[in-house]
Amino acid sequence: MGNTITELDYITAAGYVKVDVGEVYVPVKFSGGISVENTAVSAGKADITLTDVPEDYDIAYSIEGLEAAFEGNSFTFTNAVPGSYTLSAKDNKGKYADLSASFMLTTADLPAAFDGKENKLIAAEGFTAEQLEAYIKNITTVVVNEKEYSASGRRATVIIKADGTLDTSGEVFAEGESFNITVKSAGYENDLVFTYPDNSEVPNEYPAGDINGDGSVNVSDISKVAAHVKGNKTLSDSEIKRADVNKDGSVNVTDISCIAAHVKGLKSLK
Q: What angle do CA 104, 110, 116 make, to 5 degrees?
């Protein structure tokens, strides 16, 4: 270490062979290093810890994929997304070996939700498509019925595709009727948990669905009833009477789900 190699001697069956390699400097290594604590994206700043780094190490920092501004042994960052990053350090004088440290930028936000109708991940309310894309790219592990599958590397099992679609064609879903799924993504403190298939909106029993009293059920009526139940709209007495699916004076979310499934042709009402 600390020397420059200019020539190599190869020992062969025919004797010594000298090879000119130009000038190859061997940097000086040492036992010290650098580190960065995992930091919340919202903090916008992180500190760098140096341990037993030589005093004459003329250090210069960089972080690939992160807009960072360095000042002393700390840095500020902007436009960051959660995930894993690597801080690199080099000696401007070229004497010492390069250093590096991995760290995580984290968030408590969960920008993804599961759409049971499309069987794919979608942007959660209040989040953008770009935030969803970053979340999907950082997926590290998918747990299906307590069995863990890696989402990257040589032994990766594709369960969530790049567009967020749930791939149910593989052996993971070959046996069983219901699957509890947990998605873990690097930098995201909270996991996405859902069940496939999602039957929460379509119950097994279907009461009578004749809203109009003439044997018909239509999308317009469903929209009105849904707005009434959610408190966005108040139905008139005549509309409430028409929407009384169970003929017991009540209008509830279960009824709306049943009617919706019937209209879409997913189920037949009993």
A: 135
Identify the architecture of domain 201-270 in CATH. Answer: Orthogonal Bundle (1.10)
Cα gap 254→259, rounded to integer Å: 9
- Beta strand 99-106 with 83-91 is antiparallel
DSSP string, the chain: ---EEEEEEEEETTEEEEEEEEEEE-PBP-S-EEEE--EEGGG-EEEEEEES--TT--EEEEETTSEEEEETTEEEEES--SEEEEEEEEETTS-BPPEEEEEEEEBS---EEEETTTTEEEEPTT--HHHHHHHHHTEEEEEETTEEEESSSTT---SB-TTSBB--SSGGGSS-S-EEEEEEETTBSS-EEEEES--TTS-S------SSSSS---HHHHHHHHHHHHTS----HHHHHHT-TTSSS---HHHHHHHHHHHTTS----
In this prediction, residues 99-117 reach a mean pLDDT of 96
Q: What are phi and psi of 132, to 5 degrees?
A: -65, -45
Domain boundaries, the chain: 33-106, 112-196, 201-270
Q: Which CATH architecture has domain 33-106?
A: Sandwich (2.60)
**pLDDT for 170:** 87
Structure tokens at 260: 């919706």
pLDDT digits (tens, 9 = 90+) for 78-91: 989 999 999 999 99
| Mean pLDDT for all residues in the chain | 85
Q: Round to whole Å and give the CA distance between 207 and 246.
A: 7
